[in-house]
């Protein structure tokens, strides 16, 4: 029988097994005992942890409390957001610029908290854009996106945005290998093996969090899936899971599953730094955009950059090594000690655990099994600590509780399995509902996990929630892991598709200088209005700038006349409030973009193009006081070429103008 069809048949059997085993047998009594009490957070009380969950195809990050599962906020990152005006107001539009132009959407897969000495520190959250490759930095003092950098030579930024233990670098591996940016890409797709390359990007993080691509490594044309940095003894190394080592370019579900093993790529980034300093990196022409938001001016700017430093893994043979890993690995996870690297072959019936010490010894003694596209391949047994035998079906992702235990999700058998890292013995297993992807233990990929809760992020929720048409909500489920046995205590629906998440103690972030309002006197926006007496309307040709203020419960000015069809009107609204949690909204009839949501002390700008004659109301969209409904105004729009003078007023009915 044809080998291709044999493997395809096996895949079909696996899928059928997955659907038939979707609902665990003991699902009826999975939640019992004191589960409700463990998940309950009384009114007025705070949750123990913040949980930052990727939004998948929503392009955003959602913030939940643990253990309550309450949704606190959706942070706009890669998608325009009508609630906040992100990507709609003039100040934040530059945040969504790329070398392809304005891109107001992306597929946000993974989140990562900044670390100091290998422990989460509550400063920043990093997020990846999978579709148009980008990395974002979210400031956890304001829960807003402050920076986005595009990744050149990349396509499908999946193995990202994972960090080194002191947040020296945010690292990204390309999901789809493609021809590099500086060559002619108009080539036959079936020349994949000759012309396609995979790039690893090392993005330097400055003291204030600023992002800059320090260097890239040109690697073989494979698919990089996930990654994690070494820690402790393995600090200075990074580990990436690789699949499609067959370098197939069509029907990957069959053609990228031919070999029994793919690879974990081990990267010595300290050695790579040395080569960069020694001038071994080549300057390669490309185009990528760096976007940043200035807290002082309340505005974002975009900068086009035109070159990047590239090291060749093929030429510099001591920066990258391949470790064979059972086929189609997804997760690539490093335990808190930095000694053990866990691979998760999606099509394997075991979990391989590699030893950093053994890997180092294998490199020293050249225990290689040839090369893969110029990169040394370490012998499997030489780097192997051992294998977890028959743990479940479809292993995906592993995190750790800091007590010597690992927890792995199994997509096909819909479960989480707890096992001992050293002995490799399975200790416990619990069903999930259903088809779990990633999991999160607060601090679970750091040196110091807070091993009280485990959250599983599930792809399917059939029979779990009220139906909502053809598409059902995806979900998260919280398990108490403080004892020997895991206990399901709560599940809740999520925003978008929850791929990956990070969590940290609430006090670490809540007490880390949370910003409550912007000080008016420090507002350096070019169109700021620091008091009602400074409000004005200025015309320059067909551009009209409205310098406006908002305060409970009126706008200044609230009557504007002399606007003409065809004008470009910019409403620069400054929120004069100097109190916590008193934002104001601004919306005008017929606006074809969105609203403004202006934080206390902030200035935001809405561009409006009047298209027809008439009286057009504007109003506050965010409830602010008992007289919120009265917070409104009018704009009179006259025909193009009208001689009606430009006037504005507050509290006075000006004489009628003919």
From TrEMBL:
Its EC number is 1.7.2.4. One of its GO terms (cellular component) is cell envelope. It comes from the Bacteria. PROSITE patterns: COX2, PROKAR_LIPOPROTEIN. Keywords: Copper, Metal-binding, Oxidoreductase. Coiled coil: none annotated. The keyword Transferase does not apply. The keyword Metal-binding applies. GO terms for molecular function: copper ion binding; nitrous-oxide reductase activity. InterPro entries: Copper_CuA, Cupredoxin, N2O_reductase_N, Nitrous_oxide_Rdtase_Sec-dep, Nos_propeller, NosZ/Cyto_c_oxidase_sub2, WD40/YVTN_repeat-like_dom_sf. Pfam families: nos_propeller (PF18764). Gene3D superfamilies: Cupredoxins - blue copper proteins, YVTN repeat-like/Quinoprotein amine dehydrogenase. It is found in: Cell envelope. PANTHER family: CYTOCHROME C OXIDASE SUBUNIT II, NITROUS-OXIDE REDUCTASE. This is Sec-dependent nitrous-oxide reductase. It comes from Flavobacterium nackdongense.
């Amino acid at each position: 029988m044809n080998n291709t069809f044999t493997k395809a048949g096996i895949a079909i059997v696996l899928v059928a097994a997955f659907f038939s085993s979707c609902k665990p047998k003991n699902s009826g009594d999975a939640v019992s005992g004191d589960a409700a009490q463990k998940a309950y957070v009384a009114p007025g009380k705070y949750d123990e942890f913040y949980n930052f969950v990727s939004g998948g195809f929503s392009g955003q990050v959602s913030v939940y409390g643990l253990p309550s599962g309450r949704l606190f906020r959706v942070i706009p990152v890669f998608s325009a957001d009508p609630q906040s005006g992100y990507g709609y107001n003039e100040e934040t539009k530059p945040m969504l610029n790329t070398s392809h132009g304005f891109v107001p959407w992306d597929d946000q897969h993974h989140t990562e908290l900044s670390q100091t000495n290998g422990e989460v520190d509550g400063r920043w959250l990093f997020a990846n854009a999978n579709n148009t490759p980008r990395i974002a930095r979210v400031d956890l003092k304001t829960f807003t996106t402050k920076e986005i950098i595009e990744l050149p030579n990349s396509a499908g930024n999946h193995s990202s945005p994972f960090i080194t233990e002191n947040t020296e670098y945010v690292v990204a591996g390309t999901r789809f290998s493609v021809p590099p940016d500086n060559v002619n890409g108009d080539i036959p797709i079936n020349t994949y093996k000759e012309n396609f390359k995979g790039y690893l990007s090392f993005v330097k993080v400055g003291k204030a969090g600023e992002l800059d691509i320090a260097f890239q490594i040109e690697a073989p044309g494979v698919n990089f899936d996930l990654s994690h940095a070494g820690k402790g003894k393995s600090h200075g190394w990074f580990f990436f899971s690789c699949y499609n080592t067959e370098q197939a370019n069509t029907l990957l579900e069959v053609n990228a599953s031919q070999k029994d093993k793919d690879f974990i790529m081990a990267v010595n980034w300290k050695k790579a730094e040395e080569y960069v300093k020694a001038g071994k990196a080549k300057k390669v022409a490309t185009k990528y955009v760096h976007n940043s938001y200035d807290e002082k001016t309340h505005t974002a700017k975009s900068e086009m950059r035109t070159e990047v430093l590239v090291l060749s893994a093929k030429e510099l043979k001591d920066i990258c090594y391949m470790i064979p890993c059972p086929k189609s690995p997804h997760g690539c996870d490093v335990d808190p000690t930095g000694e053990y690297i866990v691979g998760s072959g999606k099509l394997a019936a075991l979990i391989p655990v590699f030893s950093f010490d053994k890997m180092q010894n294998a490199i020293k003694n050249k225990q290689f099994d040839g090369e893969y596209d110029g990169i040394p391949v370490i012998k499997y047994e030489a780097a192997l600590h051992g294998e977890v035998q028959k743990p479940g079906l479809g292993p995906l992702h592993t995190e750790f509780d800091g007590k010597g235990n690992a927890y792995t999700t199994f997509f096909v058998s819909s479960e989480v399995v707890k096992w001992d890292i050293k002995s490799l013995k399975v200790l416990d297993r619990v069903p999930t509902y259903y088809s779990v992807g990633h999991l999160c233990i607060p601090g679970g990929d750091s040196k110091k996990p807070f091993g009280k809760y485990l959250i599983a992020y599930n792809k399917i929720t059939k029979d779990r929630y009220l139906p909502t048409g053809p598409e059902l909500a995806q979900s998260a489920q919280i398990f108490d892991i403080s004892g020997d046995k895991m206990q399901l205590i709560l599940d809740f629906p999520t925003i978008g598709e929850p791929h990956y998440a990070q969590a940290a103690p609430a006090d670490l972030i809540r007490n880390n200088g949370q910003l409550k309002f912007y000080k008016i006197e420090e507002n350096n926006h070019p169109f700021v209005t620091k008091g009602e007496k400074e409000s004005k309307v200025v015309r320059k040709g067909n551009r009209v700038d409205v310098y406006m203020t908002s305060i409970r419960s009126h706008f200044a000015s609230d009557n504007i006349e002399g606007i003409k069809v065809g004008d470009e009107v910019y409403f620069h609204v400054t929120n004069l409030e100097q109190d916590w949690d008193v934002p104001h909204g601004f919306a005008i009839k017929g606006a074809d973009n969105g609203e403004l949501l202006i934080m206390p002390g902030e200035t935001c700008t809405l561009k409006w193009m009047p298209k027809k004659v008439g009286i057009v109301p504007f109003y506050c969209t965010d409830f602010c006081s008992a007289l919120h409904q009265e917070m409104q105004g009018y704009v009179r729009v006259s025909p193009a070429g009208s001689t009606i003078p430009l006037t504005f007023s507050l509290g006075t009915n000006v004489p009628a103008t003919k």
